[in-house]
């Protein structure tokens, strides 16, 4: 982080919310990339609406992060790609529709479950309102994913094999259970990482029943706790594409900022 949290949330909670906010920021970007090239007008409109919702939620989460001492300029415009804590599923733009739906469905549901697990007064009311937006996102994803699993099962299964381990890594180690999850222990969240991992897996396994697509196993060895970066919620040094960061920060149009 660019700044230590002031009196308020534990430092690990600041990192946790930062990861959710950055993931929603990148979700907005990825939805925007698809809003004019989806298979039909309904999906174009959905992409535009989802992008707007996600960016609105990011604004709220950034506001709370600033209250915890995270620098305004750092959040908005001064970060390097490796300083973003987004889910690794969003590091690169997806070019095929079935794979994009898998990418978005896994990531959006995971970000929502992580957010919904927060049990803190600063989020009272706000999370409920966000949940109203997310209901429509998640329903749309599920419908499209179930349909694509029937019409393009190989493409969906290949994308799941790629993205499911990455989303497990973002959620966190299986060893973070009710007793050992540090954010549960300090009362910032009301359910452990291990429960969220299971919820994501079980939801999509149930959704895909009756199709030819098999949900990848819930692998407790992913991520390796010894290699997991808790701040960026990933292993390794991967990061979002630098040109996407330039777009998020509006670098090519800085001269037009109204002071």
- Count of individual helical segments: 9
Main sheet properties: none
Distance between the termini: 27 Å
Give the number of DSSP strands: 0
Radius of gyration, taken over Cα atoms and rounded to an integer in Å: 18 Å
Question: What structural class do you assign from the helix and strand content?
Answer: mainly alpha
Helix content bin? 55-70%
Output the helix-strand order: HHHHHHHHH
Shape call? globular
Q: What value does the average pLDDT take?
A: 93
**Low-confidence runs of at least 5 consecutive residues:** 1-6
Task: Tell me what portion of residues adopts beta-strand conformation.
Answer: under 5%
Describe this structure in words.
With 259 residues, the protein is mainly alpha-helical. It is 58% helix and 0% strand. The protein has 9 helices and no strands.
Keywords:
single chain; 259 residues; mainly alpha; 9 helices; disordered N terminus
Layout of helices and strands, plus pairs?
Layout: H1 11-34, H2 41-67, H3 72-77, H4 97-116, H5 126-151, H6 153-171, H7 182-185, H8 193-207, H9 242-249
Helix pairs in contact: 1-2, 1-4, 2-5, 4-5, 4-6, 4-8, 5-6
Question: TL;DR?
Answer:
By secondary structure, this protein is mostly helical. Helix content is 58%, strand content 0%.
